């Protein structure tokens, strides 16, 4: 009989959820201020910051939830986050003209101490570690 899955919100998962929650708030608030106050200056960057905020919210909800649906949501959001930070990070390094202002994922999360680059790796590791056996 397979061992039941360990809740993603248990133990160190609580810290992971807290970090995701902080990033959800900060990215969403930053994008909101940028979109309302100066959208015409860098619309692509500000929309990408808003997208990052939504992804962080979904990851937080998925990691904090219980059950197969929450786990699928977490896998999808955290996986999308990793792809996003890699793609946007590369684009902002190699094509700076299209990004006159930073996003959360610019330069692989340089403005946030590279936490946006490390966070999905930790998240995917935690999801794998807490999977049903």
Question: What does it look like?
Answer:
The protein has one domain (13-129). Helix 1 (13-38) packs antiparallel against helix 2 (43-64), helix 1 packs antiparallel against helix 4 and helix 3 (68-94) packs antiparallel against helix 4 (115-129). It starts with 12 loop residues before the first helix and ends with a helix. With 133 residues, it is mostly helical. The protein has helices at residues 13-38, 43-64, 68-94, 115-129. 68% of the residues lie in helices and 0% in strands.
Topology of helices and strands:
Blueprint (H helix, E strand, L loop, with lengths): L12 H26 L4 H22 L3 H27 L20 H15 L4
Helix pairs in contact: 1-2, 1-4, 2-3, 3-4
Largest β-sheet summary: none
Percent range for helical residues?
A: 55-70%
Morphology: elongated
Element order: H for helix, E for strand: HHHH
Oligomeric state, counting identical vs distinct chains: single chain
Straight-line distance between termini: 9 Å
Q: Kindly provide the radius of gyration, computed on alpha-carbon positions and rounded to a whole number of angstroms.
A: 16 Å
Fraction of residues in β-strands: under 5%
The number of domains: 1
- The counted number of beta strands is 0
Number of helices: 4
SS-derived structural category: mainly alpha
Query: Mean pLDDT, rounded to whole units?
Result: 91
Sequence stretches where pLDDT stays below 50 over 5 or more residues: none
